[in-house]
Design a protein that fits this description.
The protein is α+β, with helices and mostly antiparallel strands and 195 residues long. It has five helices and four strands, in the order H-H-E-H-E-H-E-H-E. Helix 2 runs antiparallel to helix 4. It is globular, with a radius of gyration of 17 Å.
Length: 195
């Protein structure tokens, strides 16, 4: 249990990646963690589309950025000062931050708990990645990466059924050399209510 809790405490969103690709053995372990995630009714309906094609990832990341309209950060409201998000820095052109591996999680369009199933799988995968020394970042705003002809062609080439939609992307890669691991923020008091 101590190792699990230590991994939970250590995991942080990483938005600065080295160009080194995630190795096949490590990637299989991360994906296995996602496959073993809980799913509503045990349906196991989440599809994991793994892209390690840098050109495709960068193009989809740029499409996603162009179609994302986040409320930009202010002095008091921001995502991260250490590793800015696209909401923090309008100059970031790639919503995937140059991650060498991008896993898009797809779920059935008409299933009540599709997003929750994807979130559970992503959390498992992020914890497994951290335990393996791989950085990760959960990216929302789901469909925007596929909101142009190239995105639609990509979905077809991946064989994504029309019954599914992109819920989120999980970025995977090794943290950029020389960057300090993001510091943990103190846990806010008063969030556990016991009766």
């Amino acid at each position: 249990m101590a190792d699990v809790l230590e991994t939970i405490r250590h995991r942080r969103a990483i938005r600065r990646f080295s160009p080194q690709q995630v190795g096949e053995a490590a990637l299989r372990q991360v994906l296995e963690a996602g496959l073993w995630a809980p799913s509503a009714g045990g349906r196991q309906s989440v599809l994991f589309a793994v892209s390690q094609d840098r050109a495709v990832n960068e193009r989809l990341g740029r499409i996603k950025r162009a179609n994302s309209h986040p409320h930009m950060a202010t002095e008091t409201s921001f995502v991260s000062r250490e590793q800015p998000s696209i909401a923090d820095d309008a100059r970031i052109a790639d919503a995937f931050y140059g991650a060498p591996t991008v896993v898009t999680l797809f779920a059935p369009k008409n299933f009540l708990f599709a997003a929750e199933d994807c979130a559970a799988a992503a959390e498992n995968m992020m914890l497994a990645a951290d335990a393996l020394g791989i950085g990760s970042c959960y990216i929302g705003q789901r469909w925007t990466a596929f909101a142009d002809p190239f995105g639609q062609e990509t979905l077809q080439s991946w064989g994504i059924p029309a019954t599914h939609y992109a819920v989120m992307q999980l970025l995977l890669g090794y943290p950029r050399q020389g960057d300090a691991h993001p510091a943990p923020k103190p846990r806010k008091a008063g969030r556990v209510l016991r009766f």
